[in-house]
Amino acid sequence: MNHSELAAFLKSRRDRVRPADAGLPAGPRRRVPGLRREEVAQLAGLSADYYTELERGRGAQPSAQVLAALARALRLSGDERDHLFHLAERPVPTAHSTAAHAQPALLGLLDRLTTTPAQIINDLHETLAQNPLALALLGPPPATRGPEASFVHRWFT
Question: Which residues of the chain register pLDDT less than 50?
Fold first, then answer.
């Protein structure tokens, strides 16, 4: 794995995403136009230290789940997500894998739906992303995969 290329790619994509695009307040004192490292880590569900180490070109090889979370947090397109997996020397996930990907346009729409519960699911009805109201109404998606992770299965059981 080429740590420096992965680090440069993460930084360039972090600089591109504006706080408003991710549903975060811009704040009066920002030294960077894009997201801060801590904000990316928060959006991806990672520790700030772990993300900082990745962006500095150090640390362990990230798992497929971490890469998928970073792709969602950084609003990567499908090709950019695939490139991220190649840089980390991980197999590119298929549409039905645990690292399934929601398109940036859908994530942007989900962020704008602040008055109604909404979630993004794949063709197997597994939850990929939810807004805070859907999280409050439906609860968090299960950590398991397979039939038990299906929204339809959870709804009827």
Answer: 96, 98-99
The predicted pLDDT at position 122 comes to 76
All residues at 6 or more sequence positions from 19 whose CB lies less than 8 Å from its CB, including other chains: 25, 26, 27, 30, 35, 39
Are 9 and 66 in a shared domain? yes
What is the number of domains present in the chain? 2
The per-residue pLDDT for 98 is: 46
Residues 6+ apart with CB under 8 A from 96: 122, 123, 124
User: Are 53 and 125 within one domain?
Assistant: no
Give 90-130 pLDDT, tens digit per residue. 888 765 454 456 777 778 888 888 899 998 887 677 888 88
Name residue, tokens 């059981």. 157
**Is residue 126 assigned to a domain?**
yes
75: exposed, middle or buried (Cβ count in 10 Å: 0-12, 13-18, 19+): buried
